[in-house]
Design brief:
The protein has 187 residues and is mainly β. The chain has one domain. It has no helices and 17 strands. The strands form five sheets. Strands 2, 6, 7, 10, 16 and 17 form a six-stranded mixed β-sheet that branches.
Length: 187
């Protein structure tokens, strides 16, 4: 492991409305992650890979209402009931890290997410990749949540991201860094 750059600390709040102001997107400032690996030591270019995990909570409260959970899904699990296929959301756990992935039903295969960060070959070529020899990794991430923009709605997000380099030969982490997305806003 030569170098690992990932965000740390608390990310900034941000909100943007669509043109009709019917939906709001909440997101921290996007970030870039890079890692350089060496073909020496315990984690060479063939075995080192990036992983991203997260945990946390989200809540919303409409004017005059009560706080209720509003944690975004990590991915959708395929469920077959009475011969019909459904996709049920798998939400963030408040205290245990789970691997981050693309939260769309069509990005799930047999109930398992297919677009996690850092796996070789990359399933997200528009936002991450490895160099040809595998000694350099890059990723650009901009997590977000879209909500109906009801005036007076309150939103709280407290999500911890963990970026880590693992040795795929042993499964052991080589290095990790954490950052938080904390948002408390009234629309």
């Amino acid at each position: 492991m030569e170098e690992f750059k990932a965000p740390t600390g608390v990310q900034a709040n941000f909100k943007s409305f669509n043109r009709r102001r019917t939906w709001v997107t909440l997101k921290p400032e996007g970030w870039k992650i890079t890692a350089k690996f060496k073909n020496e030591g315990t984690c060479d270019c063939d075995r080192c890979q990036y992983r991203q995990e997260l945990k946390g909570t989200g809540q919303i409260k409409n004017p005059g209402g009560k706080w209720r959970p509003a944690t975004p899904p990590l991915y959708f699990k395929r469920v077959v009931k009475k011969g019909k296929i459904r996709y049920e959301p798998v939400h963030l756990h408040p205290t245990s890290f789970q691997e981050d992935s693309e939260p769309h039903p069509d990005k799930t295969q047999n109930g398992v997410p297919t677009q996690q960060y850092g796996h070789k070959p990359s399933a997200n070529p528009w936002s991450e990749g490895y160099s040809e020899n595998g000694c350099y990794y890059w990723c650009v991430d901009a997590p977000h949540v879209m909500l109906k923009a009801n005036p007076g709605k309150q939103v709280k997000m407290d999500i911890t991201f963990k970026g880590k380099i693992i040795d795929t030969g042993t499964g052991d982490p080589v290095e990790s860094k954490e950052s938080k997305w904390v948002q408390n806003v009234t629309l």
